[in-house]
Structure to design on (122 residues):
């Protein structure tokens, strides 16, 4: 008998690195930014300019910060707290999946904004 325990498998999010998102709830509500990283296993996302915390670094301890000192660092937030920004209006929108046929006859799945129907670039 096979062990088919799928409890720990994370559902792949429809938000990807490089997307523009809007925070819809929490202490950063209303802020928007570009996605820097997506962590599907922990259901978290890293957004540029959102959930910024102060961190101190020793001199030479971090490769990007040769001087050390106190610097800002983005902290991950839960992926359910953000929605993709509509490419036309910039307002938060839900995401749908549409199958389109390419010029060469192959099919491709594309993400579509529910509010305006515009396609997100991948």
């Amino acid at each position: 008998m096979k062990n088919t325990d799928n409890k720990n498998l994370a559902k792949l999010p429809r938000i990807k690195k490089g997307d523009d998102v809007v925070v819809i709830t929490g202490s950063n509500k209303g802020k928007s930014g570009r996605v820097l990283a997506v962590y599907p296993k922990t259901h978290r996302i890293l957004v540029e300019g959102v959930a910024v915390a102060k961190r101190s670094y020793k001199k030479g301890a971090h490769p990007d910060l040769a001087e050390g000192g106190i610097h800002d660092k983005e902290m991950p937030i839960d992926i359910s707290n953000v929605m993709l920004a509509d490419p036309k209006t910039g307002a938060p929108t839900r995401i749908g999946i549409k199958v389109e046929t390419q010029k060469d006859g192959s099919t491709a799945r594309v993400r579509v904004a529910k509010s305006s129907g515009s396609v997100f670039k991948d």
Remarks:
- The mean pLDDT is 87.
